[in-house]
Structures are given as structure tokens and as C-alpha cells.
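testing teh design pipeline on a random one, pls ignore if ur not involved
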């Protein structure tokens, strides 16, 4: 299933990129590139939901609009997973993603879809150092803001790192000059 989702995402990204006139990286300006800073709030689901009550974090990304409708960039941040107070031995832990950001914007303002893919480093006593992650998103965007719902899953080599979260996030666009 992981390979299927990744394959479909990458295939859509390739088709979207080559279906339009593309920009070179040397063409970065305030009209097609920006820094995104934001906050996210999530609810852990699956097995990790037995130990963590909610997740709260910060997001940071650099985005370049490769075409008028397709953006790509790098993304990182930090999300803290808060322990449930009634679970003995549970501790807070953190997640630091480092990934590739892919976005499709059909119009200059309105609906968008995208995903982040990469590796998440886990902090704290979670029993794993991290794993591959995917974070599909759907939301609304305008010139300054992105507001979206997401599903985040971290796939580890052991069951302790299979972390799933659903949530909402908002990012503010700071233009490059």
C-alpha cells in the first residue's frame, strides 16, 4: 500500500510538472517562491492513540512554483505528541520531519491538494529513531495563507514507530525578495 501511494503521488507530480511551461530554479522571485511558517494540531489514531492524547507542532517549508499550478519544496518542523495522563509509563515524544513537499493548485486562489514525503526523526523514549513518512493534504489557499486538513503516517521498521495522526494546519507565506 505504501509503495502504491508513493507511486501515484510521484506519477501525478511528474505529469503535472511536464504538462505546463516550467521555471528554472534561477527564476526564483517573490511571485513564485516563498517561505511557509505554520502551526498544526492533530489527533493520534491507531495504536499510538492509546498513549498520546493530541499532537501540536510547528511547520516550516520553502516552496518554489515549478509551474503556475505545481509547487515543490522542502519541509521540516517539530511536532510534540502529548502523553495521556491516565497511561502509566507513557511519555511525551517528538517528531522532526525532513521531506519533499509536492502541491497542486488548480487556481491562484482556492482548493489545493498535496503531500509531503520523507523521513521523520523521533525524539524521546518512543522505542524507535524514526521512519519514512507521508502526509497527504487537502485545503484552501490564497496569496498569504494555506489552511488544510492532513493525515500523517510514520512507517518504522518496528511497530513502535507506526504513528498515525489526523489534523488541521495553517501556514503563512513569507515572500522571497
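output:
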Amino acid at each position: 500500500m505504501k509503495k502504491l501511494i508513493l507511486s501515484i503521488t510521484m506519477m501525478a507530480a511528474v505529469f503535472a510538472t511536464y504538462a505546463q511551461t516550467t521555471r528554472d530554479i534561477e527564476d526564483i522571485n517573490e511571485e513564485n517562491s516563498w517561505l511557509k511558517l505554520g502551526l498544526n494540531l492533530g489527533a493520534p489514531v491507531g495504536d499510538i492513540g492509546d498513549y498520546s492524547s493530541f499532537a501540536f507542532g510547528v511547520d516550516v517549508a520553502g516552496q518554489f512554483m515549478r509551474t503556475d499550478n505545481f509547487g515543490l519544496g522542502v519541509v521540516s518542523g517539530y511536532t510534540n505528541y502529548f502523553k495521556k495522563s491516565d497511561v502509566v509509563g507513557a511519555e511525551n515524544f517528538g517528531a522532526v520531519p525532513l521531506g519533499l513537499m509536492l502541491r497542486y493548485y488548480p487556481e491562484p486562489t482556492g482548493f489545493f491538494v498535496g503531500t509531503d514525503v520523507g523521513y521523520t526523526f523521533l525524539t524521546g523514549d518512543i522505542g524507535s529513531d524514526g521512519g519514512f513518512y507521508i502526509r497527504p493534504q487537502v485545503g484552501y489557499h490564497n496569496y498569504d495563507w494555506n489552511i488544510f486538513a492532513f493525515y500523517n503516517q510514520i512507517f518504522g521498521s518496528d511497530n513502535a514507530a507506526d504513528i498515525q495522526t489526523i489534523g488541521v494546519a495553517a501556514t503563512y507565506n513569507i515572500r522571497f525578495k
